[in-house]
Amino acid sequence: MNKKRIAIDMDEVMTDAIGRFIELYQQEFNEDLSALRQPGNNLEKVVPPDRLAAVKSWPHRPDFFKDLDAIDGALQAVAQLHQHHEVFITTAAQEFEHSFTPKYNWIKQHLPFITWKNIVFCGDKSIIRADYLIDDLERNLKTFTGTGLLFTAPHNAHVEGYTRLNNWQEVVDYFLK
Amino acid sequence: MNKKRIAIDMDEVMTDAIGRFIELYQQEFNEDLSALRQPGNNLEKVVPPDRLAAVKSWPHRPDFFKDLDAIDGALQAVAQLHQHHEVFITTAAQEFEHSFTPKYNWIKQHLPFITWKNIVFCGDKSIIRADYLIDDLERNLKTFTGTGLLFTAPHNAHVEGYTRLNNWQEVVDYFLK
Question: Which residues form the active site (chains A, B) (predicted)?
Answer without folding.
Answer: 9 (nucleophile), 11 (proton donor)
